Amino acid sequence: MRKLILLIVAGLAVGALFGHLMMSVPGYWLIRVGDTSVQTSFWFGLVLLLAAFLVLHFILRLLSGMIRPVGRFRTWNSRARNRRAMKRTVRGLVAMTEGRWKRAEKTLVKAADDSSTPLVNYLSAALAAHYQGNYTQSQEHINQAQLTTEGADTAIGLMQAQLLIDRQQPEEALAILNRLDKQLSNHPQVLKLLKQVFLSVNDWEGLRRLIPRLAAQKLISQQEREELEFKAYRELIIFEAKNPSDIERVRSLWADMPDYLRGKTELIVLYAEALLQANEDTIAERLLNHSLDHHWDARLVKRYGLLNVDPSRQLVKAEKWLQERPNDPELLLACGRLSLRTGKWTKAQEYFEASQRQRPSGVVCAELARLYASLGEHNKSQLYYRHSVEMLAKSLPSLPQPSDASDSQPSSKKAAKRA
Fold first, then answer.
1. Quick one: 148 exposed, middle or buried, by C-beta within 10 A (0-12, 13-18, 19+)?
2. Where is this region: Disordered (predicted)?
3. Which tens digits make up the pLDDT trace of 123-164?
């Protein structure tokens, strides 16, 4: 109501102002053509001029619409087709979500030509064809996507790589991802897929170099980083150790290894084995000495007891550790073996027997049996050999034996006779 009153008041004010102008600003229009002349007031002529302009404008627009009807129809038709294509695209994507791959592919491809986003249509259709197992058709859709949309190389490449990984073709995927990685340094999705492919093809060197980039982009947690680094360095050391003549490669890996990994027992043992295979026994001894001083582990003690660098010096070091760990069965076994290397038979016997008392072991029994046999004490030797075999037998799986079969044989023979 207030708006209506304001409009009426405004209209009256404008009318009054216009009337005042008509009274205060007199004038006239005089149009003369030959002997004919037309005269009217200034304000009435102004109104006629304005009306003529509006009529002329309307006529020109009408003529323009009549001259270009085909173009207008095409524009309208294009918009209508685009709207229909968008509806079809949505139906195709819904079918994709519901797992109706064949229907999704057909709908998306049919709508692609009229769609404003043909890239989405063809890539989604490629995914639907892939899920149906139609890999050739899937690749054709990807090729069509490249033709319809410029500047989409990254999206298309990532789609291709992901589909190739799903098809168990990691080598082909790796070629695409390496190309994308050169073009787009540290692209998150490219790095994720590279990690997946490196693990698939056991490319441990590639994974080792990729891990810092993954961590810098915060694409892996600290725990996952440590697990991947451990696995990569372990596999690389195992592989490089197969060629003892190229021990420098193993040394380089050990030098590049993060500090926390040098305390991992499994890696220390692998590195020590590689050094021993390359006749680097002295370096292996220093490595084990240093590791055991800072990180005690039974596996390292066992390996130390099998070294043959300087048995006398090694035995002194082992007996020093024994003062701190007098009841360590693995250390007692190592001391016994080092005593054998130095020719101290009685001391070796004492260490072996002490180890056996702390933790009965088939290995220790075998060592004692061999030692007693060499000393001529065959009764004791046979006793420990028997203990060794018995302890080994306890670790074997439970399987049928000939005695079990012979027990069941009479009953089977009886059954055959009855038949």
1. middle
2. 396-419
3. 889 989 998 888 899 989 888 888 887 888 888 999 999 999
